[in-house]
Structure prediction request, 255 residues.
Amino acid sequence: MLRHSLARLAVAGIMSIAGIAAAKADDILVAVAANFAEASQDLAALYEKASGNKVVVTTGATGKLYAQISAGAPFQILLSADAKTPAKLADEKAAVAGTKFTYAIGKLALWSADPKRIGADGAAALQADDFQHLAIANPDLAPYGVAARETLQSLGLWDKLATKIVMGENIGQTHSMVATGNAELGFVALSAVQSPQQPSEGSFWVVPQDKFTPIRQDAILLNAGADNAAARGFLDFLKSPEAHALIESYGYGVE
Prediction:
């Protein structure tokens, strides 16, 4: 129902967004952080319906996407899981100056497929120490992994639970570890737990913001998209009320 309502809003309102109506039909190659995979597909569908432009989404860990872009991958837009990577690409002249903005603010959740494992206080579930594996994304590759590490450090549990931590290459792999039972619980993106498409069963705790550095997810126009009106139009669309409503429905904050 939510997706249908958003679609009706989008068809009615997107064409008024600057640049979209004028953009000719074209393919847009967008590199998207793994945590934002589902939301990006819905956003792409709304933009395609309104503009006639095709959005081709590739998802992965932000660190790996950065490496691909630096190696010459022809992505035109990056939707990062952090603010640091787009800023770095701008500093390296690999992206268009002045196009960086925060498209979503990520939220972290401790999640278990077991509906009884995590109560109102997720810290208590961690301190109980009655599990074999705790999944997190690799902090060297994924900002959500950094947030998970900061949370455990804030709770004084990083060293205590170090031998139980298993790492996914990205937040999507981390979610899969918990979903398949390879880890009894793990730190995942809230967006994966309350996805409008496939909400996760089980139990979860939304990690308080004071436990980790805010996950500001920034977008930026890459050099390959500098002359692509459709790519610029898609970035404008991400700032629209229609896009913000969809992004918030996936458990993110917006500005």
Q: What stands out?
A: Residues 1-25 have pLDDT under 50 and may be disordered. The longest strand covers residues 27-33. The chain has two domains: 2-105+215-249, 108-206. The two ends are 25 Å apart (CA to CA).
